[in-house]
Amino acid sequence: MTYKVCAFYQFAALPDYRELREPLRAFCAGLALKGSVLLAQEGINGTVAGAPGAVDAFADELAHGTMFGGRLNNLELKCSTAEAMPFGRLKVRLKKEIVTLGDAAADPTRQVGTYVDASEWNALIASPDTLVLDTRNAFEVAMGTFEGAVDPEIKSFGQFKEFASRQLDPAKHRRIAMFCTGGIRCEKASAHLLARGFAEVYHLKGGILKYLEEVPEAQSRWRGECFVFDERVALGHGLQEIGLRERDKGHDRDE
Hints:
The protein has 255 residues and is of the alpha/beta class. Helix content is 27%, strand content 25%. The protein is built from 7 helices and 13 strands. It has a 5-stranded mixed β-sheet with strand order 4-1-3-2-5. Strands 6-10-9-7 form a 4-stranded parallel β-sheet.
């Protein structure tokens, strides 16, 4: 059986997120889905895997069903496949943030950077006036990144604001283009930089996964592999899985 894997997120006001946990868990269990879902007052973030029809039913419920009442009508979805189930179980967890930065001023529901489609990304990062910034953790960057990208050398995304405070200057870095695996960290990071006075902040819409899905390898400026937070370890161009790993949980979900 080939499994469908769906990574998703949306920043949206969910003041009732605690009450949503059990209905969502029961709905996923009824579809025999496995994976990890995070719920917070600021939105939803996760990756699930299962039979293709079950994953489609799950995505449809999030975006159009009664459970969320239309609040997830701008859901960011990236789907791929796996030859083996990439998750051991189903987890639906409550969090303070769906991606942890620890900056109350960074509110993606108020302001985010300018989205750049995968087809336009190469031209943006080729400009010598653009600082290309990888917002992921150091172990992810070590597996692959875009040509010329700056590695912030952070162990967790929560350290990004300290990196920005030390190394980035609104007067010097007038145009910043950032990227991450699926787009969610860039939403928070761009909101943080805009709140600090940076004028031009761009981020890759749909993240590296969307770029690898849409941009032909011959035209790609991506080098290496893209780490994903499941048993497949990494994906390459066309979102082809690189291989399974042992079920150690050394890296918690940060995307």
